[in-house]
């Protein structure tokens, strides 16, 4: 299905902005090869900061869980090695990317992923007009099982990965594609939803004819 591997990333964090001092508390990275998840890196993270009460209420991640977790200095090199040069994806990718960059900078490293794909933007372009593109609601609307606990990194990354696979299957059926290069998803992220069908017919259908 996918011509090259894609790593789906999800962070849980203490807030919305690393520029305001927010840090990661949990990470999950799932590698998709072909059309299935084949490998994963999952860890809680001790970043040495307080976990706000509302974050514990939202995610279930407590201060004691973070205190006993590996430090970010240990986790980030492992995470970056896991991602390597594969394409990187996330649901609302700009959020996860800013934390990835900030945490990587703290350990003196630079991410090497080949490209960035946002499954949120992609869903808006491939399935326009849905009532919501929040991950849980979107999964329910599209019939994608959501196992585990919402707002935990592994569960969110897994459903996001299955969403990406679902989108690829949809494009495969609709446009008779036997495989998809991750660069196609990156291109679709950059154009408006109304232009997507014409773009795919012009760029993809002729090549498969």
Find the CATH topology.
Nucleotidyltransferase, domain 5
How far apart the termini lie comes to: 18 Å
* Low-pLDDT regions: none
Mean pLDDT: 94
Largest sheet: 5 strands, mixed
Helix content: 40-55%
Q: Please tally the helical runs, counting DSSP H or I stretches of 4 or more residues.
A: 10
What string gives the helices and strands in order? Answer: EEEHHHEHEHHHHHH
Count of strand segments: 5
Q: What structural class is derived from the secondary structure elements?
A: alpha/beta
CATH architecture: 2-Layer Sandwich
Q: Give the full name of the CATH homologous superfamily.
A: Ribonuclease H-like superfamily/Ribonuclease H
Instruction: Determine the strand fraction and express it as a percent band.
Output: 15-25%
Give the number of domains.
Answer: 1
Strand numbers in spatial order across the main sheet = 3-2-1-4-5
Based on CA atoms alone, the radius of gyration comes out at 17 Å
CATH C-level class is Alpha Beta
The gross shape turns out to be globular
């Amino acid at each position: 299905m996918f011509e090259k591997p894609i790593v789906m990333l999800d962070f849980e964090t203490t807030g919305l902005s690393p520029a305001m001092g927010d840090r990661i508390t949990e990470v999950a990275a799932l590698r998709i090869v072909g059309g299935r998840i084949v490998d994963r890196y999952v860890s809680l993270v001790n970043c040495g900061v307080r976990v706000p009460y509302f974050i514990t209420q939202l995610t279930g991640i407590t201060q004691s869980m973070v205190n006993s977790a590996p430090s970010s200095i240990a986790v980030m090199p492992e995470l970056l090695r896991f991602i390597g040069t594969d394409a990187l994806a996330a649901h609302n990718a700009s959020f996860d990317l800013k934390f990835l960059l900030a945490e990587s900078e703290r350990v003196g490293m630079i991410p090497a992923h080949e490209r960035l794909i946002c499954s949120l933007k992609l869903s808006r372009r491939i399935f326009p007009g849905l009532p919501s593109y929040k991950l849980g609601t979107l999964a329910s609307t599209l019939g994608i099982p959501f196992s585990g606990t919402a707002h935990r990194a592994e569960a969110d990354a897994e459903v996001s990965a299955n969403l990406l696979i679902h989108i690829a299957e949809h494009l495969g059926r609709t446009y008779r594609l036997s495989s998809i290069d991750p660069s196609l998803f990156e291109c679709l992220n950059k154009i408006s939803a109304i232009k997507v069908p014409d773009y795919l017919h012009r760029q993809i259908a002729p090549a498969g004819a």
